Amino acid sequence: MPDLDEAGTAAEAAAVTGFWQELGLPGLLDVHTHFMPPNVLAKVWAYFEDGRAAVGQDWPIVYRQPEQERVALLRAFGVRRFSALSYPHKPGMAEWLNSWAADFAARTPDAWRSATFFPEPGADGYVRAAIRSGAQLFKAHLQVGGYDPGDELLDPVWGLLAEAGLPVVVHCGSGPTPGPYTGPGPMSGVLARHPRLIIIVAHLGAPEYREFLDLAERYPGVYLDTTMAFTDFLDRLAPFPPVLVPRLAAAADRILLGSDFPSIPYPYLRQLQALARLDLGPVWLRAVCYDNAARLLGL
Ligand SMILES: [Zn+2]
């Protein structure tokens, strides 16, 4: 496993800090990071490291550290706000994840308070409670959860989130492996019913980049996060078509920095370098790495 020693960590923090300083930013805002109960995170890491994601390449977890060290590392990188996305793979789990996330937010003032849900009786009740207690960001994982976002049990949930104007990071693309409800179809149906809903399409919708960019052009509340996109790792699985790069420029106000920290098989800096490699200029990078999330989620 790649293990970052202290000198390596300091050098990495200096390189990440240099990236945003050069852009004249006060730091980074990362909408797609994961903090969850330790036993759940251990299972997620084992899933990737044991090759069960079946992506045809190794997926060693670079930031396999205790929670406090991971938080300290994001701070050393100058990530001013980050999320704590967790997601259930079965019923009866979301409410427990939400109470863990509330505790995490209480001890981590620079994390956006995050919550999740599953299509189950009572989902609207605990989502309403999470909103009342200050949740700022939700997560839905259609591939891991294996559910239809159009499930009637979720209709009131989408309605509540649209009404509250709270964004939901949705893993709805078919990468790295498809599920029965991934791809642009199911979420398009939800947006047709709830056109004001704010969603952040994880991983830029990989591999259905074009279709999810279409959706962002159609609905003002559709954003895309950069999580893993344009890195060599994801480009081997789901290459981003160069022909779509001008559409990224046009969607400059809808793209948000996401990293998937800590569950990534490469150093954090790679995500930033991958964005810079697109050559869309400093104004675009400032919007993506800070301004858009500041506007959408606040500080
Ligand atoms: Zn993720």
Give keywords.
299 residues; alpha/beta; six-stranded parallel sheet; two-stranded parallel ribbon; 13 helices; 45% helix; binds zinc ion
Write the layout of secondary structure elements.
Layout: H1 6-22, E1 28-30, H2 38-49, H3 67-77, E2 79-82, H4 94-107, E3 114-116, H5 123-132, E4 137-141, H6 142-145, H7 155-164, E5 168-171, H8 184-193, E6 199-201, H9 209-218, E7 222-225, H10 232-237, H11 245-250, E8 255-256, H12 269-277, H13 282-297
Parallel strand pairs: 1-2, 3-4, 4-5, 5-6, 6-7, 7-8
The structure holds zinc ion.
| CA(first)-CA(last) distance | 35 Å
Outline type: globular
Order of helices and strands: HEHHEHEHEHHEHEHEHHEHH
Beta-sheet strand percentage? 5-15%
- Helical stretch tally: 13
Instruction: Indicate the structural class.
Output: alpha/beta
**List of distinct ligands in this structure:** zinc ion
Q: Mean pLDDT, as a whole number?
A: 96
Instruction: Give, in spatial order, the strands making up the sheet with the most strands.
Output: 3-4-5-6-7-8
